[in-house]
Structures are given as C-alpha cells and as structure tokens.
Amino acid sequence: QVQLVESGGGLVQPGGSLRLSCGASGFTLDYYTVGWFRQAPGKEREAVSCISRGDGSTYYADSVKGRFTISRDKANNTVYLQMNSLKPEDTAVYYCAADSDLEAQTMGVLPRYKHDYWGQGTQVTVSS
User: What is the DSSP secondary-structure string of the chain?
Assistant: First the structure.
C-alpha cells in the first residue's frame, strides 16, 4: 500500500522538544521532495520545512528557523522533523507531503498544492 505515515506528535511543555517522523511505504521517499506542513484550529495550513530530492536543499518558515531541523534517513525511508524550543504557537496538526516535481523552496510557498502524497497528520500540543 502506498502511503505516508506521520508519528512522534504529543503533548510537550514550552521549551521542550519533539521529533516527528514521516515514513513512506510502497515508494522510495528519497526520490521525492518532502515537506512538513501544519494547521492550527481556525488557521490556514502553512509550510514548516521542506527538503529537496537530489541536492537536499531545505526550506524553513521564518517562525521555525533556528529551532526546527529537517533531515532524511534513506535507510529507513523516513524524513524527520526535529523540533526544539517549542512554543505554544507551534501547536497544530502536522502533516507531511511528498512531491516528485517541486523543489523545497517552491514547495514551501505552496501550502495548499496538490502534492503526490499526504499523510494523515499527527497532533503536536505545546502547553504547560
């Protein structure tokens, strides 16, 4: 079955860390640009971070620069999002998506684009 599955979300206190995983089955994630997006209640979906296929170039939203890091694990067919220094405003459902055509910078400015694959999302709640 071809799918993306996110995991690693949860409840964390402000200043804490989480690592989200985006695992692929049925296809090789390394051939795709992968992006992390988030949507909070009542807000538009926004791109958080993306990593290009090929050269591995990255995109980060200004709000997460210096705090979040995206990376690939080719052996496990997975893309990670390491989130440090979490803030209450990071609370959202986080989704990953894979795209065979776009590069990271373009994917980052198209949060509502119909990418090839989307995961079901994982909830991240930052609260004391």
Answer: --EEEEE--EEE-TT--EEEEEEEESS-GGGSEEEEEEE-TTS--EEEEEE-SSS--EEE-TTTTTTEEEEEEGGGTEEEEEE-S--GGG-EEEEEEEESS--HHHHHT-TT---SEE---EEEEE--
From residue 42, give the alpha-carbon distance in Å to each of 7, 37, 39, 125, 126: 23, 15, 8, 15, 17
Structure tokens at 74: 């080719």
Q: For residue range 14-37, list pLDDT tens digits in order.
A: 999 999 999 999 999 999 999 999
Compute the distance between CA of residue 99 and CA of residue 128 in angstroms, rounded to an integer: 36
